[in-house]
């Protein structure tokens, strides 16, 4: 079937009254970016829905795959815009129906916003349904649980007819909800946390603490790959790699072994807080989950959180591990996350970390050294990488051309 439009529905956006214009503009630009560099289409975003006009050479299936990733899009339908004429409607409905399997069921669903159209809703259903039944002999009607719904929308400008509704990612358009800094480890949780906030329209930048030579380049590559997967939804994400080795060594010099985990998290948070201010973000996001490991009891969270007044968002706080794993598989980060490269915390993890840190003791141990300068130096030496969905291939080709120069 050659379709001439994609109908894109906004879902939740309709609730946003006065802000709607801003949301629609953002969604339009996110949609255009997701479709680049495909050719052969024109995007028309109205207040309540978007029409993407398709030219003959448009790769519609690829466009649908990309649109499914865009937050703020609720569903997508390939549609035909046809004349407001009963014979044309019938002919098109019959063409859809001919493709259905033997003994499938269908129903005709009519939405009629042009009340002046010569057939009312009921008449249209009966006329078109009757035409389909008499022109095919392998189908029957089921109004409650049909295998196929042929939808006919009678609007003022034309009639739109379709029988496919593709589920979108839902949520809100990224760029409408401010900016956060995601603490991205190589684990299962933090990429899922990032996706959760992006789904609510929030832009993310990511920060990763790297401790060479205790952690390998492979561990860093893993985080790059996770960022690349997240970027598929938004175009580009900035990843800040923080050199964390000196701070970790210093923590181990002055803090009691059982408290090193708590102080490590506190130093990460202090670095993240400075970066938040530097990049103009409004919150920190992490993958913490209540009660999962030693650093994630309420007492630990209290001690770690105390270094900052920036809001710390924990979208996975109350989920079960199985739910997080399920989400990680859905968004495609799970297989990368379970690759066995240590991150900086696994390496320095004490045998018996304190699960209920005494806050006064934390402060007392950290008084053994003035960490401020070292924290500032870590921030000053951050490596920034701009990552989009093609990042790996870009890097490979750079490496290739470098290799050519060398040999
Ligand atoms: P994850 O699967 O995200 O690593 P986790 O359950 O393993 O989470 P922890 O390792 O205790 O939990 O880390 C808690 C949170 O702290 C992580 O979700 C992440 O947001 C942050 N974090 C931990 N290590 C790093 C790191 N090296 N760089 C950046 N953030 C980190
Ligand atoms: Mg971890």
Automatic annotation (TrEMBL):
It catalyses: [ThiI sulfur-carrier protein]-S-sulfanyl-L-cysteine + a uridine in tRNA + 2 reduced [2Fe-2S]-[ferredoxin] + ATP + H(+) = [ThiI sulfur-carrier protein]-L-cysteine + a 4-thiouridine in tRNA + 2 oxidized [2Fe-2S]-[ferredoxin] + AMP + diphosphate; [ThiS sulfur-carrier protein]-C-terminal Gly-Gly-AMP + S-sulfanyl-L-cysteinyl-[cysteine desulfurase] + AH2 = [ThiS sulfur-carrier protein]-C-terminal-Gly-aminoethanethioate + L-cysteinyl-[cysteine desulfurase] + A + AMP + 2 H(+). PROSITE patterns: THUMP. Residues 61-165 form the THUMP domain. It is found in: Cytoplasm. SMART domains: THUMP. Keywords: ATP-binding, Cytoplasm, Nucleotide-binding, RNA-binding, Thiamine biosynthesis, Transferase, tRNA-binding. InterPro entries: Rossmann-like_a/b/a_fold (IPR014729), ThiI_AANH (IPR020536), ThiI_fer (IPR054173), ThiI_N (IPR049961), THUMP_dom (IPR004114), THUMP_ThiI (IPR049962), tRNA_STrfase (IPR003720), tRNA_sulfurtransferase_ThiI (IPR050102). It is an enzyme of class 2 (transferase). Catalyzes the ATP-dependent transfer of a sulfur to tRNA to produce 4-thiouridine in position 8 of tRNAs, which functions as a near-UV photosensor. Also catalyzes the transfer of sulfur to the sulfur carrier protein ThiS, forming ThiS-thiocarboxylate. This is a step in the synthesis of thiazole, in the thiamine biosynthesis pathway. The sulfur is donated as persulfide by IscS. This is Probable tRNA sulfurtransferase. It comes from Staphylococcus hsinchuensis.
């Amino acid at each position: 079937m050659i379709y001439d439009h994609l109908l894109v529905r906004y879902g939740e956006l309709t609730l946003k009254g006065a802000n709607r214009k801003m949301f629609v503009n953002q969604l339009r630009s996110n949609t255009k970016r997701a479709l680049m560099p495909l050719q052969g289409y024109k995007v028309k975003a109205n207040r309540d829905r978007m029409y993407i006009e398709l030219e003959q050479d448009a790769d519609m299936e690829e466009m649908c795959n990309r649109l499914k990733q865009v937050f703020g899009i609720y569903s997508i339908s390939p549609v035909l815009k046809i004349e407001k004429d009963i014979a044309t409607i019938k002919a098109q409905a019959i063409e859809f129906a001919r493709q259905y399997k033997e003994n499938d069921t269908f129903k005709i669903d009519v939405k009629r916003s042009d009340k002046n159209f010569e057939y009312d809703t009921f008449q249209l259903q009966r006329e078109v349904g009757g035409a389909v039944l008499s022109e095919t002999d392998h189908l029957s009607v089921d109004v409650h649980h049909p295998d196929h719904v042929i939808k006919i929308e009678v609007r003022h400008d034309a009639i739109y007819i379709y029988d496919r509704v593709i589920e979108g990612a839902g949520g809100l358009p990224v760029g409408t909800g401010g900016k956060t800094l995601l603490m991205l480890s190589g684990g299962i949780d933090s990429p899922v946390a990032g996706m959760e906030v992006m789904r609510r329209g929030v832009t993310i930048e990511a920060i990763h603490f790297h401790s060479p030579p205790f952690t390998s380049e492979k561990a860093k590559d893993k985080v790059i790959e996770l960022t690349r997967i997240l970027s598929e939804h938004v175009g580009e994400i900035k990843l800040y790699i923080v050199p964390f080795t000196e701070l970790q060594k210093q923590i181990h010099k002055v803090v009691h072994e059982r408290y090193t985990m708590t102080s490590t998290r506190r130093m990460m948070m202090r670095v993240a807080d400075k970066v938040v201010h530097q990049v103009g973000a409004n919150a920190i996001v992490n993958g913490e989950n209540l009660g999962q490991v030693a650093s994630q009891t309420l007492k630990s969270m209290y001690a770690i959180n105390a270094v900052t007044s920036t809001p710390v968002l924990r979208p996975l706080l109350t989920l079960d591990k199985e739910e997080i794993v399920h989400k990680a598989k859905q968004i495609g980060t799970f297989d990368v996350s379970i690759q066995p490269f240590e991150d900086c915390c696994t390496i320095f993890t004490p045998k018996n970390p304190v699960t209920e840190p005494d806050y006064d003791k934390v402060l007392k141990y950290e008084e053994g050294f003035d960490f401020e300068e070292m924290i500032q130096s870590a921030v000053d030496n951050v490596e920034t990488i701009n990552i989009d969905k093609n990042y790996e291939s870009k890097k490979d080709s750079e490496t290739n051309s470098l290799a050519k120069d060398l040999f």
